[in-house]
Amino acid sequence: MVDKAYLGMPIEEFKRVYKEGKFIEEPVHEYGVDGESMGLKVVENGEPVLFVWTFEGDDKVSGITVLSPKVTVDSTIYVGATASDFFKRNPSAEFEVHMIDERFELGYVKGKNYTVEFLTTDSTRVGNYEYGDSQPKFLRLKRPDAKIDRITIENK
Predict the structure, then answer these.
(1) Domain extents for the chain?
(2) Considering the chain, what percentage of its residues have pLDDT values greater than 70?
(3) How many C-beta atoms surround the C-beta of residue 107 within 10 A?
(4) How far apart are CA 60 and CA 57, in angstroms?
(5) Which one, out of 49, 62, 67, 146, has a CA that is 20 to 30 A from the CA of 1?
(6) CA–CA separation, 11 vs 5, rounded Å?
(7) CA pair distance 106, 116, nearest whole angstrom
(8) Helices (H) and strands (E) in the chain, counts
(9) What is the pTM of this model?
(10) Contact at 8 Å (CB) between 50 and 110?
(11) Nearest to 102 by CA among 77, 129, 63, 62
(12) DSSP symbol at 53
């Protein structure tokens, strides 16, 4: 459960529990999801809260992206917390540059179904990486004060 939403929740139920919200269709690829479909961003009191998407042909929530600092994940992780905060709470965390869209840098913990996301560029990366033949290997935090921009929850 994330705020009032959960993975596998029917979209109609999602719309009912966020009945005070405004729903805006946005492309899933803007949230680092591979595909050309649209998802729903819910905005309450003028503030974005969540973005959800389904797999094509399904009416159940397949993924949730937290956009509001008022929503916590894993009891202590929230949008606006720092990379250092995340690392301190999760010493085994790993970071990587998103394989599909390099605008996103991700922090994750094996065994947990969420990733923290930082919107970065080559010059503003949160981590130092060793670049080789494959995916860059995370070495250490370069910008420990970088703030989490989003948190995505999905079944892995």
Answers:
(1) 9-66, 72-154
(2) 99
(3) 25
(4) 9
(5) 146
(6) 10
(7) 6
(8) 2, 12
(9) 0.93
(10) no
(11) 129
(12) E
Q: Which pLDDT score is estimated for 136?
A: 82
Yes or no: say if 127 and 137 are a contact pair by the CB < 8 Å rule.
no
Q: In whole angstroms, how far apart are CA 38 and each of 31, 102, 128?
A: 10, 20, 33
Residues 69-89: tens digit of each pLDDT: 999 999 899 999 999 999 999
DSSP state of 142: S
pLDDT band, residue 133 (cuts 50/70/90): confident
User: Coil, helix or strand for 61?
Assistant: coil
Taking a C-beta distance cutoff of 8 angstroms, is the pair 94, 141 a contact? no
**In the structure encoding, which two tokens stand for residue 110, read together?**
């094996």
Residues 6+ apart with CB under 8 A from 97: 104, 105, 106, 125, 129, 135, 136
Q: Which residues of 12-29 are buried (b: 16+ CB within 10 A; e: fewer)?
A: eebeeebeebeeeeeebe
Question: Which residue carries 């990379």 as its tokens?
Answer: 83
Q: How far apart are CA 116 and CA 109, in angstroms?
A: 10
